[in-house]
Structures are given as structure tokens and as C-alpha cells.
Write a structure and sequence with these properties.
It is built from 13 helices and no strands. It folds into three domains: 118 residues, Four Helix Bundle (Hemerythrin (Met), subunit A); 59 residues; 85 residues, Arc Repressor Mutant, subunit A. The chain is mostly helical and 293 residues long.
């Protein structure tokens, strides 16, 4: 849903836009002089005149993003932030008009604001995803006009993906995101206004019974493992712990050097120890099962 300003805010925006568009254009030499005075001397009056003269750029850029349903005043303000950043970074020594340089920073600032505020769900972070977000509507409209029908088919999605250098799956995902709106989990879905969306969401976490069962199983496995390890001699325990229970696995060769035996001998002891543990665990678990009968 598009954001609608109250009448007072609309009037303030209109007055601001009118004043910005009435600011006089700067001649190239004067523009560079202002930029030089700000850059070299820190002249804030020169900065103010430079920025004030090109506020029109922030306004015109903001207008291009009004269909995203965000407050126009915020869009213009973000454009002004980009304009200030451009003034901070602009090098007067380069043979480049400030307006040309500032346009990129203004647009980047507004785009970043749109991506952060258009949806509570993050829309995209990579350059390709941002390009898809800001060009999807335009490309879709072009294709629909050409095909004289609404909606995208597989061929159209493939065309968009190719033009923007993204995956078709990204196009499909973005298509769904742009066609839907965020909705509060507290929004009601019943006529009496009592049942909310969140009451229809399934809880995928374990229920209390499953939690207790998992805890009991974990305790049983731990007890079986302790019992099995207890049936091994010191060297066998060292090999099993360092090969299977420690966070970082030790190689057969390293264990061989530590114990003063060959890595093949370590492998043989490891195999024998595993068989002994397996037998112990089977005996213990079978005994516990019989005790329950």
C-alpha cells in the first residue's frame, strides 16, 4: 500500500519542491569555484550555495522512486544525503560537472533507503539483486506490452534473467516479492476480529514430550559411551578420544609418533577398540531393554 502524507506534510513537500526547482543553475566556472572554496578552505557558505543549487537533483531523483510507496519527504531527504556525500567527495581538479558527479550519489542513497524500508524482509544485498529489484517492473511492463498480455511466462523470466545477469530462480522469487505486501502477524482473519494470522502458523519446534525423550536418549547414549570407554586400556582410550571424540581429529601418523608406534599399528588398535566398544554398548543396551520387560 502506498504511503499517503497528511495534507500539512503534502503542502510542506510541495513548497520545498517548488523552491528547489526554482533555484538558479550554476555556471561551470562558478560551480568549480564553490567546490574549490569548500574543498580547500572549508567555506561553508560555498558548500551551502553549491548544495542548495542542486537540490533539484535530489527532488527529481526522488520522484522516480515514488511508486515504491514510501514517504516523498524521506526520499528527498535521502537524496539530499547523497548530495552532501557528493559534495564531500567531489574533486574540483577533475574536468567534470558537479551535477553529473552528484547524480550517482543521490541515486545510490535513495536506492539504499528504498531497499532498507520498502519491506521488512530484506530484498537484496548483491549488485545483481539490487539491479533486479529496481528493473523488474520496467522489464515486466515492456514484455507485457510486447506480448499484449499480463504476467510472465518461462520465456519472459529467462529473458529478464539474461538481461540482468541473474538466475531465473531469482527472477521468480523477486516476482513474488513485488506482487505481495508485508502483512502483520497480528492482522485479523476472522469476521469477529479475534483470530489473527499468527494463530495459524505451525510451530516446528519439538514439543515437551519430544524434548524429554531426546534428553533421555542423549543421557543413555552418554552412559553407554562412558561404559564402553571404561572397558578399554589407556592406549586404546587415547586413540579413540583423539580420533573420534575431540573437536580436532588427530591423524594416524601423529598418534603413532605420540605413542611411539607405527600408524598402521594405530589403525589396528583403533579398529580393535571400536569392536570392543561396539560389543560393550550392545550388551549394555540389551541389558537395559531386558530390565524394562
Amino acid at each position: 500500500m502506498a504511503y499517503i502524507d497528511d495534507p500539512q506534510t503534502q503542502k510542506a513537500n510541495t513548497d520545498y519542491i517548488r523552491n528547489a526547482m526554482n533555484e538558479p543553475y550554476l555556471e561551470k566556472d562558478h560551480e568549480l569555484e564553490l567546490a574549490r572554496r569548500w574543498k580547500e578552505d572549508g567555506d561553508e557558505r560555498a558548500l551551502h550555495e553549491l548544495v542548495q543549487s542542486y537540490t533539484r537533483l535530489a527532488v527529481s531523483s526522488a520522484m522516480k522512486f515514488k511508486h515504491y510507496g514510501l514517504p516523498m519527504g524521506d526520499l528527498i531527504q535521502e537524496g539530499n544525503i547523497g548530495l552532501m556525500e557528493a559534495a564531500k567527495r567531489f574533486e574540483p581538479s577533475r574536468d567534470l560537472r558537479f551535477s553529473t558527479y552528484a547524480t550517482w550519489w543521490i541515486r545510490a542513497s535513495i536506492q539504499d533507503y528504498v531497499l532498507r524500508n520498502w519491506s521488512i524482509v530484506r530484498t537484496g544485498s548483491t549488485a545483481a539483486q539490487k539491479s533486479l529489484f529496481f528493473n523488474m517492473r520496467r522489464l515486466r511492463a515492456e514484455i507485457e506490452r510486447r506480448n499484449e498480455e499480463e504476467g510472465l511466462d518461462d520465456a519472459a523470466r529467462e529473458e529478464i534473467a539474461t538481461k540482468l545477469g541473474v538466475k531465473v530462480s531469482d527472477v521468480i522469487t523477486m516476482e513474488g516479492r513485488l506482487s505481495g505486501l508485508d502483512q502483520s502477524l497480528n492482522a485479523t482473519i476472522s469476521d469477529d476480529g479475534e483470530q489473527e494470522w499468527q494463530s495459524m502458523l505451525a510451530d516446528d519446534s519439538a514439543n515437551p514430550e519430544e524434548v524429554v525423550t531426546d534428553m533421555k536418549d542423549a543421557q543413555a547414549r552418554s552412559a553407554w559411551l562412558d561404559s564402553a570407554l571404561g572397558g578399554l586400556d589407556d592406549r586404546e582410550q587415547t586413540i579413540i578420544r583423539q580420533r573420534h571424540l575431540d573437536d580436532e581429529t588427530v591423524t594416524l601418523e601423529a598418534l603413532g609418533e605420540q605413542l611411539g608406534i607405527s600408524k598402521e599399528r594405530v589403525r589396528q588398535i583403533e579398529k580393535r577398540a571400536m569392536e570392543k566398544m561396539r560389543g560393550t554398548i550392545e550388551d549394555v543396551s540389551e541389558g537395559q531393554y531386558e530390565s524394562l520387560l
